[in-house]
Design goal:
Radius of gyration: 56 Å
Number of helices: 36
Structural class: alpha/beta
Strand order of the largest sheet: 19-20-22-23-24-25-26-27
Largest sheet: 8 strands, mixed, barrel
Helix content: 40-55%
Strand content: 15-25%
Shape: flat
Number of strands: 37
Length: 997
Amino acid sequence: MNPTDTAPSVCQTKDLASPGPDAACPAPALPPLPDSATQKWLKAQLFDSTPMGLCVLHHGRPLFINDHLAHMLGGDHGDTHATAPELQQRWPDLWPQLLRIGRETRMVHINRQDGSLLVGRAYTRSLQPLLDGAEVVTLVDDTRREGRGFSATWRARMLEQAETIGRSGSAEIDMTTGKMIISKGMHSLLGIPFSPEPMRSERFLRWVPKEERGYVAAIWQGAITDEPFEFQHRLVGKDGTRMEVLQRGMVEEDATGQQHGYLIVQDITAQRQAEQRIQQLAHQDVVTGLSNRTHLLDQIDAAVNHARWDPGTFLVLSVQVDKVDQLKQAMGYGAGDSMARAVAERLKGLAEPGDVVARIDGGEFAVMVSPQSSRLDATGHIHARAVVDALSHAERVAVSEIVPGARVGVARFPQDAETAGELLEAAQMARMRIDAQGEQVAVFTPETRALAMRRLAIESGLRHAADRGELALSYQLQADLSNGEVIGAQAVLEWTSGELGPVPLEEFMPVALQSGLVVSLGDWKRNALCAQLQAWEQARVRVPRMSTRISTLELQQHDVFEKMRRCMKQYGLTPQSLGVEITERALVEGGDSLGPTLSQLKALGVEITLGDFGANFTNLALLRSLPVDVIKVDRSCVPDVTAAVGAVSLTRAIINMGHSLQMQVMAEGVETTGQLTLLIASGCDRMQGPVLAPPVNGETLIQMLAQRTRLPDSMLSRRRERTLLLVDDEPSIVSSLKRLFRRDGYRIVTAGSGAEGLQRLTEYEVDVVLSDQRMPGMTGVEFLRRAKDLYPDTVRLVLSGYTELQSITDAVNEGAIYRFLTKPWDDERLLEHVREAFAHKEMADENKRLATEVVAASEALTQANERLELVLSNQQQQIDLEAARANTARDLLDSLPVALLGVDPHGTIVLTNQELQRALGAHTPLLGASAAHSLGHDFAALAAAGAAGAAGSTPASRIELPLGGRTWHARVRALGDAHPRGVLLTLIDPLSPQVRT
């Protein structure tokens, strides 16, 4: 068959110039396919010899494909003979991508049978002249080219993103020509617009600071081929921003011998700043900006190493400022930090070039004095004293002015230590030896280290003291100063170490507080005391209240109250048998839990004592709000007869303050009768100290209680006689005066000096003092001034032959002297002056007695008024309650749908409800009317009816009542049993529907 003859016969008869597809002529929906002969003819003519992928589509459906396309799609030669349905089924994702390509190029993606991806470019050409609706598609395999393009694009994008994220840029340098191509990241880093054009390397160097350009150029000039290198320098952006950058580079040589340089520049400014911040935090104190302990030790170590090559000495000062930690406890961290910064500024102001000032922790600071400054101060006292003086001036914190204060320990290199750590520890050891009330400067000595080692031994021994049975209790009695009787005792912990022997409480308790062992020691002490009290109670031995001291650290434990309650319950003790003593420092360091804890103990019935009062500073506002029963004055505030006037006044102020707060006052550590006398004269309530009894063990305590140990009466009260004290250093004059005044019946006490006169004042209740002026050791005016401060109720006279006018005038004006008399004297005139003095004293005593009675009466009246106000308040509350109950009952009765009427025992109608008033009408008032008149029955008859109903004799207990023009049925109920308080009537209208029913 000739194809040129047969091919047209299979086509629809159309003119070759027929209208195109846009012509408005209907086309068949789906023409029939050409016969197989025609298909083979086309295939043979067009496809078999073509070296590219070809297929013929007829109205979008594949007719056939050539061998090249079959292999391209992952098929074989047999696919070239597949029918159209088979081709559609074999590669269903391909044919939709080939529709309506037109004159454009289209990228085609198809998965081969082996799973690989084919990426091709498709072109189409119409075969309309040969076959209606036919087109030939050419498919070129573009997989490799597409992969390479995608890879290059991806790499470029990833490079750009990596440079953006990493704040970096890259460049390539032609080492021969000096031309340089920089990336987008480099442009962004420098802040300049992107340009793909190369630039000269000299131009790039302009972005490097001038002083570093030579450094950067030298590194590149010295670069070794194929050897990477890196270095840091700075770049200056277009806006003037300076950057710290890390540059990494390498030089390569290509096949032609040309050298190319490649570099990456990364902005590490933030990293460097973070490193500097870390370095700063690692070596500086955050609050003060001073060096910290680590940096200080580094500097000391450097100074030690330098001193080994250049022998010399230098100092290390350990400075403790307790106010920093105290302010944190009392006012919060802000106040403590403010004080720490103020201390830092003062220490920096003292520092000289080469010195290092550091803050170790809290209120502990340290100073390393340079060798140059240390040469002028071999012992360190000058520098230490300068620190103390600088911190002795007040600093304003919030609204208060507070003196920082300091204790300074000094260590010297190389005398005291040879390493940085040991040198700092030596200074700290020296400083810790300083008592809070003692000297403020201490220099390290070999004994200091021995004491430190003993502290370690004490701490180690305390950990096992209870298990080894080394602990014991001793007891010190307490007496009432009004009668001298024993009213209590304080349990004191004692420790006898198997290795150290007896260790005083004053030595091991600070170690226990610092190490935290005080909590376990307190547990042992409480249990041992309760067990001992139980044993005494079982033996029927009566002992006074026993108090035990609780440390601040124990008070801060959440279970301190529960421990006390559980211990008392376990040993069957009453609250009156125990007392708790806390320290004054607890008011500052106890925290928010102090008040609730003490309130719980107080509610338990335990007596609470505040000890060490006056030794530290006290929060008086907090003290007023705490349930404290007794204030125990510290032994440092217990004066003797030789004490300064200020000390005596302070003690009196504490006693008066305690009484004004309704608290008892106890003096601790009373050692002499002089102290006891002053305390009694100042109004102190209780005492504890050796003058009564030293601390004793339990067996001795029972013996002392059995012997009724008490204060002697001679110490408590003195016979009330008219007593005259004569003070003169000349025995003859004293004898003459005694003979003169004996006739008036005075009890005469004599003294040969002012000091002896003060002693006599403690032993006797003196009314009048007659003193000479000229005496050795203490003049008469000085003696009388002291007597006035200690015993202001005495009347004081001077008898002297020397007229030191100014001093005597001052004493008279101050009130220290009642009258000045001269020698020689006239007996009668002198007797008259002394009689007037006694009369003045007696009048003053009477006024004082009356004033005391007035105060007592006023207090009693105040208390009576308070009780009366309380009674009235309670009565008013009761009245208000009764009124509320009455109003409620009235509202309830008014709401009942039944008419009610009440009559009191006097026969008066006292109750009607709204239902009754509604039935009778408002024009029939009943309240206040007589029951006999309004109801026709008096109270007796109504009460009898009510009683009969209650007894059951008349089950209905009804009566007939004429009221409001009609007769009512009334149920009567008596209120009360034997003596009715009234009757209640329930009225029922006989015409109501309920009654008719």
